[in-house]
Amino acid sequence: MSAPRRRVSPTSLPATGVNPPQMIEYKNGHPLALKAVEAFRFMHFRKCSGYTLYPLFALLLFASLPLRAQDASPQLQTDQEQTQPQTTPEQRAQVLRQAQERVNARRRLRIKQIIQETYSHKYEFEFGAGYERFRPGNTLQHISEASWNADLTRYFKGNLGITVEGRGYYGTAFTPQNPFRVYKPGISQYVFLAGPRYRFYKGQHWGWTAQVEAGAGHGNFGTGTHGLPPELIGLYKDSTVLNVSAGASVDYNLGPALAIRLTPNYLITNYGSTMQYNAGGSLGVVYRFGRK
User: Fold this and answer.
1) Per-domain boundaries in the chain
2) pLDDT, mean of residues 68-91
3) What is the Cα–Cα distance from 284 to 120, expressed in whole angstroms?
4) Per-residue pLDDT for 214 more than 70?
5) CATH-assigned architecture of domain 114-291
6) Residue 269 and residue 151: Cα distance in Å, rounded?
7) What is the CA radius of gyration of the chain?
8) 11 Cβ partners below 8 Å, 6+ apart?
9) C-alpha triplet 281, 195, 244: angle, nearest 5°
10) What b-and-e string marks burial along 36-66, b requiring 16 or more CB atoms within 10 Å of the CB?
């Protein structure tokens, strides 16, 4: 049989330096309170040591996180590289060709829009200056005349239009020795023409047109003879005759509504009952306005 247990008050225990429990049991004459005191000391030591170790453990945990992230990053990159499909040189070349085709398609569309905007105007007005080689008399030499020209073209459906034009030519005739002592008289002609104009090329920067016109031209050959009839010194007499002109124009577009036009032309006149074939040209500025 086990020995009976008995309770002893705390005042009957020897001093230990710790706070003992209120009641202490004995068994076989040995106090059980000593084990409780020892357990209490162990718990107190664990509690104090835990306060010191927890910050250390936390510091070690935070210090190891970047290392784990660095170890995981190469693995993640390797996994991504393994998951990405491998492309061949032929596939890359095909992708580049498709991208270039898209760029070219956008460029063609933009050029088409510019051409449409440029040549959809209803009217063109031109003003320019030029020159002409002209013979002022049947026995006189050719001279170079300065000129101006202004024309208005009305375009109808398509590329066909009607042009109305006015020109002025000014020069100095060289007359031979004569008893009237009239040398180098000034002459002029004014021409009024109308006719069809056709645009046969339409580009982003360049445009080509051709025109044939007919009308009347008035020649002033006696204005510089001081009242002397011009035919007395070999000039044609003042008259109004038939004029026919043919030419082709080259336009360089500065914008949809503005262009520079170069026009070589050929003017046929009939002064003095003879035909004159006069080559010339003009350089002018074209302004487009109105919409078809």
Assistant:
1) 23-68, 114-291
2) 60
3) 21
4) yes
5) Beta Barrel (2.40)
6) 19
7) 56
8) none
9) 55
10) ebeeeeeeeeeeeeeeeeeeeeeeeeeeeee
